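User: Run a structure prediction on this.
Assistant: Running it now.
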Amino acid sequence: MTSAEPRPPDSEPIRALLRAVLTDLASPSVAPLPPLSRPRWLRRLPHVVLYLIALGLALAGVAANDTYRLGFPLGELTGAAQGVALALALRRPVPAWWLSLGATLLAAAGARAHMMADIPASRPDWPWSSPALVAHALVLFLLALRLPARVAIGALSVTALLTYVMQGLVGGQLYHSTGFLAVVVFAAVVLLGIALRGRREARTQLVEQASQTEEERARRTLLEERSRIARELHDVVAHHMSVISIQAQVAPHLVENPSDELKENLEGIRQNALEALTELRRVLGVLRSENPEDPYGLGAGTGAAPNSPQPTLDRLDALVENTRAAGLQVTTEITGEQLPLPPGVELSAYRIIQEALSNALRHAPGSAVRVELWHFPRGLQVRVINSRPERPAPPSPGAGHGLLGMRERAAMLGGTLVTSETAHGGFVVAAFLPRDGAVTGDAPSTDLSPPPFTDVDRSGRTGDESR
């Protein structure tokens, strides 16, 4: 064979497919029909209905075999086998198909022997009687519904082939031909079963993809919020490292006649601070965005300038005034001795209050909001409580992951955050942020669980003023 001559088609894939189909048709595979998901009291209704149909087809098959003059026990066994095959198809469709097909062929062969030996009084339906045709069609439908398409098509092909052999090659006399009608009906139910199975698999894959998409969205939101927190902490740490560098540079000028050793140590401190600052900016500086409308580079900016200083609790009054201007009645209460807080704690507290007020604006329009700050020796407790909204909230375009960001901020500092609806239709956000990054035994962790009567009336007073 020269290179110009056409090569014969490779038949190995076809042989492999045929081997797979024959293997599937030879294996007693278990593919039970699942119950209905709801309502629960009707879960087994399809099984009960099919069992009743199987009983009716078994009785009809026994009666139909009387026209074949098969006698006892062949007529009763082949007729009842159709009903048994349909019942068996609920769990083992392939053995059920073999049983139905074998019973039909056995009954057709017995009927042919009587038809060839004697002229029947009436022309029977042959080779498929009406009960056998209906039973086998239902068996093929269940098989196509539960097993891959290649198995269903293989079973249909074998059924059509044996029908042709029995009617076209073997043949009989004086009968109503049902072979062509049976093959058409079988092909229709197999195609219907394959289509329904494909639709069910597509819906299952769609649900799985939707679940994976939701998980990826939640994971992306978590990473975005952590990136935002890291960017803000980068600014805080960079500020302090810059201050250390400047102080180390200025310190020799504050001492009269500083020694060379002191100058060398201070210069070493300054160089180490500058190197640390450089590495910090190199690693975390990528979290900044060149777009002022998107300072975090995440597609959901706050509109703040990227180089503006990070807010602290000193700017809480301005935040409250902005919220009041947006239409909410906001009151504040600060309790306890206001000891200095680390910059990270102040920043996280401010962001938690900011997000809680933003949620109240979006989801509780017209409500009254109370912001509480409780200073304790071990940390800061923040509570933001809003009353029931005066009107329904409009649809919000946000992603709805603000609570996730607040929890991340509290967890980053070793604190805790809880959220809950109030008994009067409001909402409360409560967080405790420790000073040293660890909650100790004397921390007021029990105050984080809002009591059921906690709420805010229109005057800004909580439902329990004894606290």
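The beta strands are 125-126, 176-177, 329-335, 368-376, 379-386, 416-421, 427-434.
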